Amino acid sequence: MNRIDRASRTISAAPAAIYDALLNREALEAWLPPDGMRGRIEQWDPRPGGGFRMVLTYLDPSDSPGKTSDATDVVDVGFADLVRPARVVQTAVFRADDPAYAGTMTMTWHLAAAGDGTEVTVTATGVPPGIDQAVHEEGIASSLANLASYVEPGD
Prior knowledge:
Blueprint: E1 4-11, H1 15-22, H2 25-31, E2 37-45, E3 51-58, E4 72-83, E5 87-94, E6 105-114, E7 117-125, H3 133-151
Antiparallel strand pairs: 1-7, 2-3, 3-4, 4-5, 5-6, 6-7
Family: Belongs to the AHA1 family.
Domain Activator of Hsp90 ATPase homologue 1/2-like C-terminal: 13-152
InterPro entries: ASHA1/2-like_C, START-like_dom_sf
């Protein structure tokens, strides 16, 4: 089966502003971790062929044990393709001993102008089988909501 996890959201910001938030270290630390997690970037190289390592820490690990340790997920993310301001393609590899989380997942962020905002669609392919699809899609949607809060102008 060719599994594709997907989530999308219209965000009231220009594609360039969203693209910039996808390639800014401080921005990613602020909005990328889904609800229930916080993130820290340890390595940073924002160019095609570069990437970053993010340590995601569960605020309540009893609810969702980590893939790398009891309370963390460590993921090495590569920038496979950067097309300003339309697309960011990332490869993600979890650091985990459990083979159910092995493999390289590809996350593609499509940014399309939509009226005064941007339709952001995230598709994930090659998702390790240990990652529940519904939970993953909920996490992507949570990150998109955080992204919207981060880039949308305040009242």
